[in-house]
From TrEMBL:
InterPro entries: Homeodomain-like_sf, HTH_AraC, Tscrpt_reg_AraC-type_HTH
Entry keyword Nuclease: no
Lineage: Bacteria, Pseudomonadati, Bacteroidota, Sphingobacteriia, Sphingobacteriales
Transmembrane segments: none
SMART domains cross-referenced by the UniProt entry: HTH_ARAC
Domain HTH araC/xylS-type residues, every copy: 181-279
Record's keyword terms, sorted: DNA-binding, Transcription, Transcription regulation
UniProt-recorded name of the protein: AraC family transcriptional regulator
The UniProt record lists the keyword Transcription: yes
Lineage: superkingdom: Bacteria
Gene Ontology MF terms in the entry: DNA-binding transcription factor activity; sequence-specific DNA binding
Length: 286
């Protein structure tokens, strides 16, 4: 079942998807212009999810948040409940003070978070699903606003659970975590051109050393490693899903010298760009 809300005046789009035999996303292709974030809940047994040609275990009753630029498909899509929305429907950046998920659930590091639901949380998720279903049966001038309220509530619940399960320090670290979240968001928007920590540190009015210490104290990967992993991830996507040459990809990712890019890629992939392309031809699944 696919329920859709569209507002032609604002370009707002929201979808609720469940019990579908096929449900996936192909960013470098069919869905390139469809810039929607996805919240996926696995209501069935543990299954596999493939994201940008990497396979992950998707445990039973866990929630996974996916970016608009990720290509994914599920082993058992019929067991997936998904909420998809574009920024015109609800912008998590503009409303970060409300939901605090920017740079954490979305626009975060390359690590995937599978957020577990206990029996109480499952009941909340089921109730939220029912409220969305009821709202789709009520077509009036405030339908969109009601769905935004429900979506905001869902995001807040998931963010709270994610912080409980994935942050190393359980006490309130407020401002420190906000700096890390903002760093992640800045990297997501600038990694193609800015490869040095100093650029991001300056944006956050911090020194590179202060950032490195903050990340280490909170058991995060180093700031420079997060930049490198994001560049490497995008390089793999471009090799997986486009026919661009290594030189074209190097230029797109901010490398002035193709040889420099080749050394960078080999360091992270343990093979050269040419060898990687042979192992993973365009459009192939691993």
């Amino acid at each position: 079942m696919i329920h859709q809300f569209n507002n032609r005046q604002t370009s707002a789009e929201f979808s609720l998807i469940y019990d579908e035999v096929t449900f996936d996303r192909v960013f470098y292709g069919r869905d390139n212009k469809d810039r929607k974030l996805t919240i996926a809940w696995n209501r069935g047994l543990s299954q596999k999810v493939t994201i940008d040609n990497l396979e992950y275990d998707f445990p039973q009753n866990t929630i996974l948040c996916l970016m608009a630029n990720e290509t994914f498909h599920f082993q058992a899509p019929r067991d997936i409940v998904a909420w998809q929305f574009n920024r015109d429907f609800y912008c998590i950046v503009d409303h970060d003070k409300e939901v605090s998920c920017m740079g954490f659930l979305f626009f975060g590091s390359s690590e995937k978070m599978f957020i577990a639901l206990d029996s109480k949380d499952q009941s909340k998720a089921e109730m939220t699903l029912q409220l969305f279903q009821d709202e789709f049966e009520t077509s009036d001038h405030i339908q969109g606003e009601m769905m935004q309220v429900l979506l905001k509530r869902l995001i807040i619940i998931i963010t709270r659970l994610g912080k409980q399960q994935y942050l190393q320090q359980k006490e309130d670290v407020g401002d420190k975590i906000d700096i890390i979240r903002n760093y992640n968001y800045l990297v997501e928007n600038n990694f193609r051109k800015e490869h040095q920590v100093k650029f991001y540190a300056d944006k956050l009015n911090k020194s590179p050393k202060t950032l490195s210490n903050l990340f280490a104290l909170n058991s995060y990967k180093s700031p420079v490693l997060l930049i490198q992993e994001r560049i490497f991830l995008e390089a793999k996507r471009l090799f997986f899903y486009t026919e661009k040459t290594s030189k074209e990809i190097a230029y797109e990712l901010g490398f002035e010298n193709a040889n420099h890019f080749s050394k960078f890629f080999r360091k992270h992939a343990n093979v050269s760009p040419t060898e990687f392309r042979k192992l993973s031809p365009v459009g192939a699944e691993v």
